[in-house]
Amino acid sequence: MTSVLHRARACTAATGFLFIIVAGSQVHADSTRQAVSSVFDGVFTEEQSARGEAQYLETCKRCHKEDLAGDQYEDVLPLVGDKFLSEWARWTVGDLFEFLTTEMPPKRKDRLELSAENYADVLAYLLEQNGFPAGNAELLPTLEPLLEIEMSPNE
Ligand code: HEC
């Protein structure tokens, strides 16, 4: 009899302990979500992607085309769709920002005409065209905060 009671007590204690672990990991998951966001969280504004569209048409369209599908005959990669998204899924928005500012457009003299703000705007347009939601704050034109934004859901 005592041993049954003892087991019951041990069991309650174990359940309580488990509860604390689960509750603890819940808190942990929430705090991670605050520190790191993803492109699914609304990380640019509609105004920003509209500015980005104008910039895109001026700077990128001649190679990547108006529908962002690229040009397979000229080896210009598409900027929308599954292939583009799976390519960048394991990177962050900051990595994409860095790629753009150092590689696109391919000619350095063309890149010098663009400011960091111009690049952040174009980036917002690319995210919008890939179906990600707009939100209340703009993408910042600096690398560090953009490195905190994952290109895939961070569940
Ligand atoms: C002169 C033609 C040209 C212009 C202008 C140009 N690109 Fe590109 N872009 C390319 C080519 C060619 C590639 C593929 C080779 C490479 O990755 O370097 C490419 C690749 C890319 C990629 C990588 C795609 C992937 O799947 O990894 C991105 C992103 C990109 N361009 C964005 C832009 C943006 C944004 C602009 C305008 C600011 C721009 N490009 C302007 C020719 C161009």
Walkthrough of the structure:
With 155 residues, the protein is mainly alpha-helical. It has two domains: 1-33; 37-150, Cytochrome c-like domain (Cytochrome Bc1 Complex, Chain D, domain 2, Orthogonal Bundle), CATH 1.10.760. Helices cover 59% and strands 3% of the residues. It contains eight helices and two strands; from the N terminus they run αβαααααααβ. It has a two-stranded parallel sheet. α2 packs across α7 and α5 crosses α7. The longest helix is centred in the first third of the chain and has 34 residues, at 2-35. The protein is globular.
Topology:
Elements: H1 2-35, E1 37-38, H2 46-59, H3 61-64, H4 82-88, H5 93-103, H6 108-111, H7 116-129, H8 143-146, E2 149-150
Parallel strand pairs: 1-2
Bound molecules: heme C (HEC).
The span between the termini is 47 Å
The biggest sheet amounts to:
2 strands, parallel
Outline type = globular
Radius of gyration over all CA atoms, rounded: 23 Å
- Low-pLDDT windows of residues: 1-5, 8-34
The CATH architecture of the largest domain is Orthogonal Bundle
Q: What is the CATH topology assignment of the largest domain?
A: Cytochrome Bc1 Complex, Chain D, domain 2
The first-level CATH class of the largest domain is given as Mainly Alpha
β-sheet strand percentage: under 5%
Number of helices: 8
Give me the CATH superfamily of the largest domain.
Cytochrome c-like domain
What structural class do the secondary elements suggest? Answer: mainly alpha
Kindly state the number of beta strands: 2
The share of residues in helices is 55-70%
Bound molecules: heme C
Whole-number tally of structural domains: 2
Q: Mean pLDDT, as a whole number?
A: 85
Q: Biggest sheet: strands side by side, in what order?
A: 1-2
Order of helices and strands: HEHHHHHHHE
